[in-house]
Amino acid sequence: MSHDHDHDNELDPFAARVRALETILTQKGLIDPSAIDVIVDTYETKIGPRNGARVVAKAWSDPAFADWLKRDATAAIASLGYTGRQGEHMQAVFNTQDTHNLVVCTLCSCYPWSVLGLPPVWYKAPPYRSRAVIDPRGVLEEFGLTLPADRKIRVWDSTAELRYLVVPMRPENTEGWGEERLAELVSRDAMIGTGLARQPA
To answer: Which of 194, 201, 200, 192 is closest to 56 using CA atoms?
Structure first.
């Protein structure tokens, strides 16, 4: 017996269930796939990462806010209006010349949606979830990030109770920059720890 359609064998069970549900609801005319695409794109590229970038930029610009972010990230982030699903309990960890922070969720894919948007596919993948703990330096090198040998890497394991935001080091030659301009240097990966803040052009 031959089949003339493709199978989504590459999907994990959860993703396969989501795809099946979306297909059924689309066929019944209950949802518009293009509307879903817009929502997903908004969370992936607009709402989420931009929120986190603004938090980081404010911490870079305002020492009092940075101190508050260290002490009570949940309240500091909420003061900027960024609250909601999976962002209720936050901790900010600051990169330094001595320590680089990396976030992973070893059990599933706990992730602060309201601050970083939707998690990237690789964040949910078993290889990242296991290897980030076992060989964080090697994982970072696969992302193109080679750190000095003497810089310690600290891995933070997100849970349903607590999620993390990495505050990357502020790039040099950005003195006098406003928060909006600084935010443009902050990528999603830098706030997970798999990247650094962009260098100014």
So the answer is: 192
